[in-house]
Amino acid sequence: MNDPAPAAGGALHNLLRLLAAGKDGALLRFGLGNEYLKAGNADAAVVHLQRAVAIDPSYSAAWKLLGKALAAAHREEDALAAWRDGVAAAQRRGDKQAMKEMQVFTRRLAKQLGRE
């Protein structure tokens, strides 16, 4: 997990350096998850995004991206669960935009799985 794909670029490398230096936090883990997902490594993205929401359970953007990473990793049931948890977190936080987006993602994936 600590060896990014060479094509991943400097952003991922810099974020990994911060993590190695002990600068852990929800925002850093969100950034790592985002960069890994952009690099096509959904499994590594999931690890970091799960850590982000463990550190800050109200981080609705991290829940949203975690669901996307889980879906990209073909873990549809886990993606649905993450988005449901994310909707609840966004509701508590008053983040209506993130809440609506995750509700849409949940409906679309449920429809794809034949569970309307």
CATH architecture: Alpha Horseshoe
| Count of discrete structural domains | 1
- Shape category: globular
Query: Which structural class is indicated by helix and strand composition?
Result: mainly alpha
Counting DSSP E segments of at least 2 residues, the number of strands comes to: 0
Q: Write down the Rg.
A: 14 Å
Major sheet description:
none
CATH fold-type name? Serine Threonine Protein Phosphatase 5, Tetratricopeptide repeat
Q: Strand-residue fraction?
A: under 5%
Describe this structure in words.
This protein has 116 residues and is an all-alpha fold. It has a single domain, classed as Tetratricopeptide repeat domain (Serine Threonine Protein Phosphatase 5, Tetratricopeptide repeat), CATH 1.25.40. Helix content is 74%, strand content 0%. It has six helices and no strands. The chain has helices at residues 10-20, 26-38, 42-55, 60-72, 76-93, 96-112. Helix 1 (10-20) runs antiparallel to helix 2 (26-38) and helix 4 (60-72) runs parallel beside helix 6. The longest helix has 18 residues, at 76-93. The N and C termini lie far apart (36 Å).
Keywords:
single chain; disordered N terminus; 6 helices; 116 residues; 0% strand; Serine Threonine Protein Phosphatase 5, Tetratricopeptide repeat; mainly alpha
List the helices and strands and how they pair.
Elements: H1 10-20, H2 26-38, H3 42-55, H4 60-72, H5 76-93, H6 96-112
Short description:
The chain has about 120 residues and is an all-alpha fold. It has a single domain, classed as Serine Threonine Protein Phosphatase 5, Tetratricopeptide repeat (Alpha Horseshoe), CATH 1.25.40.10.
